[in-house]
Design goal:
By secondary structure, the protein is α/β, with parallel strands linked by helices. The chain has helices at 16-22, 27-47, 67-83, 85-90, 106-119, 135-149, 155-161, 207-218, and strands at residues 8-12, 52-59, 94-98, 126-133, 172-175, 194-197. Helix 5 links the parallel strand 3 and strand 4.
Length: 228
């Protein structure tokens, strides 16, 4: 029996720097091309009736990269959050942010807050942007919340305390760029996600690439530990 279309797709958008290096370009230009790809994939996923799309945009480990690259990423993030907000509203997309935002500049934090507030009334696809996000860090913060509230520790309580507590766990987790690891992304939530790895660098990951991943998902049998 084939599964249905995934309700929640999560994507590790990898390969921007290698895409640029392959073309003799600065890494930041690879990230710029990657940002362009985001809106195309968001639009296509929304039209394909995906309920939640989570994009791993900046990890807690990405701060280790060269200063000029990190600064370039922050400029790109600010630019695209501000310039694409109208398009997201047009597509009826609701924005959520997961991750620890305190490390960002006031300008970036304000832009992210605007995108959340201006789309919170929309009822279309949810776009979760994982920014300064790490799965282990998220778990630590979740356990601290539970401890502070004196909550019982069980699977339901942990799930609710996570940054993603408002949405279902991902059905399909895609990683572009050829690497085959989760890299600290949705460690708790991806327990039963179908994993899909592709050699395609993120800037070359088009709508047809997403369709191929969804088609592969439809051929898999999800038993969740059962034998049926």
């Amino acid at each position: 029996m084939k599964t249905n279309k995934p309700a929640h797709i999560a994507i590790i958008m990898d390969g921007n720097g290698r895409w640029a290096k392959k073309r003799g370009l600065p890494r930041v230009l690879g990230h710029r091309e990657g940002m362009k790809r985001v809106i195309d994939i968001v639009r296509h996923a929304s039209h394909a009736d995906i309920q939640v799309l989570t994009l791993y945009a900046f990890s807690t480990e990405n701060w280790k990269r060269p200063t000029d690259e990190v600064e370039g990423l922050m400029r790109l993030l600010l630019y695209y959050v501000e310039t694409q907000l109208t398009e997201l509203i047009k597509e009826n997309v609701r924005v959520r942010i997961i991750g620890e935002q305190s490390a960002f500049s006031p300008e970036v934090k304000e832009a992210l807050e605007r995108s959340v507030n201006k789309t919170k009334h929309l009822n279309g696809m949810i776009l979760q942007l994982a920014l300064n996000y790490g799965g282990r860090d998220e778990l630590v913060r979740a356990f601290r919340r539970l401890q502070a509230n004196g909550s019982e520790i069980n699977e339901s309580a942990i799930s609710s305390a996570l940054d993603t507590g408002e949405v279902p766990d991902p059905d399909l987790l895609i990683r572009t760029g050829g690497e085959m690891r989760l890299s600290n992304f949705l460690l708790y939530q991806a327990a039963y996600a179908e994993l899909y790895f592709t050699e395609t660098y993120w800037p070359d990951f088009h709508a047809s690439s997403l369709d191929a991943a969804i088609e592969e998902f439809s051929r898999r049998h999800r038993r969740f530990g059962d034998v049926k």
